[in-house]
Design a protein that fits this description.
Blueprint lengths: L6 E5 L4 H12 L3 E6 L12 E3 L5 H15 L4 E4 L14 H29 L2 E6 L2 H5 L5 H21 L4 E8 L5 H4 L3 H8 L10 H11 L11 E4 L8
Parallel strand pairs: 1-2, 1-4, 2-3, 4-5, 5-6, 6-7
Helix pairs in contact: 1-8, 2-3, 3-5
């Protein structure tokens, strides 16, 4: 795979970590297309977008087909889109369990399955699943979310054993608390409590996650597969 010029598809690429990753890969010389459920486009000049609901198999097929027909085969997949539906399990409705797992876990697996068609043919490819420190440590009120994010690790490692010999790498990035819209919505007491658990004593920046992803999809990351890379300021160390 060329360090520059590969076509990257980033779900949830219109904001937060996804947008930062789109910028990082564009700066590195990759062609980038983003996908978002809202259809909101990228703010990065020259980066097109498609509408995709990763919780829906038909939407995935339609979006990937559109990208391939318009821009060519996808050589880099960043499965970043995800949702949270937080509540103590005793109060959590079935819908919140099913939608979270369908979007975060099943959606990522379906995305990988779909882009593998061209990657196997080319005998090259990079897939990055976006997990979370919560998938490693657990979090009260996030049983559904933690399960969906932990499942990505097993998926990535199993897929590495299936297609690793074809020049395809599949890795997992596990961010901790990153300065995004989600953390900005927390009240000050919650923010202070969270910061007290992070050895680095600060939130991470989306660009710090994006640079790790940029490395994994580059030539320099060609011998890394089935790995879980934490970007969490030391919060989940040892897990």
């Amino acid at each position: 795979m060329s360090e520059r010029g590969g076509l990257a598809f980033i779900t949830g690429g219109n904001r937060g970590i996804g947008a930062a990753t789109a910028q990082a890969l564009t700066d590195a010389g990759h062609r980038v297309v983003i996908g978002s459920r809202s259809g909101q486009g990228s703010e990065i000049p020259g980066v097109p977008s498609v509408t995709i609901d990763v919780g829906n198999g038909e939407s995935i097929e339609k979006a990937i087909t559109q990208v391939e027909q318009t821009y060519g085969p996808i050589s880099i997949l960043i499965a970043n889109a995800g949702i949270t539906r937080d509540s103590l399990l005793m109060r959590m409705p079935d819908q919140d369990i099913e939608e979270t797992i369908a979007t975060n876990l099943v959606g990522s697996i379906r995305l990988a399955r779909r882009v593998l068609r061209s990657m196997i043919k080319a005998r090259n490819g990079r897939i990055v699943f976006m997990s979370s420190v919560v998938g490693l440590l657990g979090s009260a009120g996030q049983v559904n979310y933690a399960a969906s994010k932990a499942g990505l690790i097993g998926a990535a490692r199993s897929l590495t054993r299936e297609v690793g010999s074809r020049g395809i790498t599949i890795n997992v990035v596990a961010p901790g608390f990153i300065d995004t819209d989600m953390t900005a919505a927390l009240d000050e007491d919650a923010k202070s409590a969270i910061l007290g658990t992070i050895p680095a004593a600060r939130y991470g920046q989306p660009s710090e996650v994006a640079r790790v992803i940029e490395f994994l999809v580059s030539d320099a990351g060609a011998y890394i597969s089935g790995a879980v890379i934490p970007v969490d300021g030391g919060l989940g160390m040892g897990h």
